[in-house]
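Severity: low
Component: inverse-folding endpoint
Summary: output formatting inconsistent between runs
Steps to reproduce: submit the following structure tokens with default settings.
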């Protein structure tokens, strides 16, 4: 089964050039693109079933530290399935609404984006993580400016500028790490950094802080979150929905760093990284929640709610125990689906009235119901998975973080602020109307949003089995013996 590990990277990489050749034949692009995304989902589910123990794919059959490796474990499989599931729904939405008609290269860029995401989740090498980050940057910029427009182009340039800074910093960190250890293989780094002499500890700490800075930019943590609101608010609706998984790449990379490459048990690092992450995560949650109160447009409200959800996720990850990691992974799944849903419903609403939160034409009851459901999910109210996710995070923090009363107060207070922000927006959108009517909802487009809400309901209904599986995932992350052994190495 190990030979199939490379297929989630190779399949979109091979299909995207074919779609470029078919750029003048939209029906063929739609058929092949959607079929490719569906195939990725099917393959990801098969790989998830095989992920109980880590599996390795060596390109060229070279061992660490010389070869390029892809590693499948529970976490990588989870991210593959989440990416493919979200991508299939958003792809169908883009076709249903005609967003893909606004540029000849939408479907090819979409597949290249999936290639970068899948590669980032599967790679077992830091340099190739950088390579897949660059693939993501190129494809996401093309998707970002899809449909043109001055505001979109300006936001796209800002997005690229921030990420180029991150890329440069990433290269500096990689050079420093390689100079000290002679390897960039993640499992090999785990072994070699643990055995470094004290004279090299300062260099590794500098490299570690640089890495966390890079991943904090990707994850949009305060004070490096400035690129996200403008980028997501100005991106096309389906592109912003797909970007819901983009910040999770930063979260994934940080999780790999603090559990495998540079865990707190490493003498050279200690709790340095988690000590940096926790206050940044708390400020991110606070900034996002306060921002929802003053958002002037619906897309910006959605973007700021996404920042708040990032803060909650990183609080759980920064606590850095198996229990908080499992809770954080549950919240990661929820926030990805809920954020995508709010961007799609925002796209539907702004297509029928001004994006500004002011009096406008009367919207349909279905639009109101879906907005209400996604607002409940993001604010963390019952009965949707946001409530369970925040409850799991709160419960795990009680036994894992010395500052848990402060963190509890922060999470509960910001949840209340988000309720107020969404209530203000909802009352303006659906009650403060001018009496005019808007176009009827598009059934196919609404079906995609309903599918995301249904997944949130399923995540709620099956919270028990899901959290049990995530607990095993978190246990594997915090005791990476099997992951290191799969690379042919011995745990120090």
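Observed output (run 2 of 3):
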């Amino acid at each position: 089964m190990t030979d199939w590990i490379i297929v989630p990277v190779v399949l979109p990489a091979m299909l995207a050039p074919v779609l470029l050749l078919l750029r003048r034949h939209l029906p063929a692009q739609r058929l092949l693109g959607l079929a490719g995304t569906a195939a990725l989902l099917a393959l990801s589910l098969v790989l998830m079933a095989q992920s109980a123990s880590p599996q390795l794919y060596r390109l060229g059959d070279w061992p660490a530290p010389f070869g390029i490796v892809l590693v499948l474990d529970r976490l990588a499989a989870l991210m593959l399935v989440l990416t493919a599931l979200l991508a299939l729904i958003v792809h169908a939405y883009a076709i249903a609404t005609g967003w893909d008609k606004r540029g000849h290269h939408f479907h090819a860029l979409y597949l290249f984006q999936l290639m970068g995401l899948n590669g980032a989740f599967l790679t077992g090498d830091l340099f190739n993580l950088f390579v897949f980050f660059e693939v993501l940057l190129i494809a996401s910029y093309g998707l970002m400016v899809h449909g043109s427009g001055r505001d979109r182009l300006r936001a796209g340039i800002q997005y690229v500028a921030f990420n180029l800074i991150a890329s440069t910093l990433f290269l500096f960190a990689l050079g420093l790490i390689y100079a000290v250890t002679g390897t960039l293989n993640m499992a090999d780094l785990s072994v070699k950094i643990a055995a470094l002499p004290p004279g090299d500890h300062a260099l590794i700490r500098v490299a570690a802080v640089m890495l966390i800075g890079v991943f904090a930019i990707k994850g949009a943590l305060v004070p490096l979150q400035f690129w996200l609101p403008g980028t997501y608010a100005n991106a096309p609706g389906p592109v912003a929905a797909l970007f819901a998984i983009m910040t999770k790449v930063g979260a994934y990379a940080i999780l790999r760093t603090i559990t495998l490459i540079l865990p707190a048990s490493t003498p050279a690092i200690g709790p340095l990284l988690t000590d940096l992450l926790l206050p940044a995560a708390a400020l991110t949650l606070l900034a996002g929640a306060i921002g929802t109160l003053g958002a002037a447009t619906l897309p910006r409200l959605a973007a700021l709610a996404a920042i708040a959800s990032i803060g909650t996720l990183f609080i759980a990850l920064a606590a850095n125990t198996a229990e908080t990691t499992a809770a954080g992974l549950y919240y990661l799944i929820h926030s990805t689906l809920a954020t995508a849903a709010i961007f799609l419903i925002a796209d539907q609403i702004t297509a029928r009235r001004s994006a500004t939160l002011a009096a406008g034409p009367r919207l349909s009851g279905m639009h109101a119901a879906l907005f209400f459901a996604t607002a409940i999910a993001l604010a963390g109210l019952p009965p949707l998975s946001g409530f369970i996710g925040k409850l799991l995070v709160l419960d795990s923090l009680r036994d894992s973080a010395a500052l848990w009363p402060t963190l509890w107060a922060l999470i509960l207070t910001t949840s209340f602020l988000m309720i107020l922000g969404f209530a203000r927006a909802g009352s303006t959108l659906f009650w403060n109307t001018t009496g005019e009517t808007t176009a009827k909802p598009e059934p196919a487009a609404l079906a995609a949003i309903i599918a995301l809400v249904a997944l949130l309901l399923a995540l709620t209904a099956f919270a028990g089995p899901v959290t049990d599986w995530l607990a095993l995932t978190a246990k594997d992350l915090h005791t990476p013996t099997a992951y290191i052994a799969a690379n042919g190495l011995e745990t120090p």
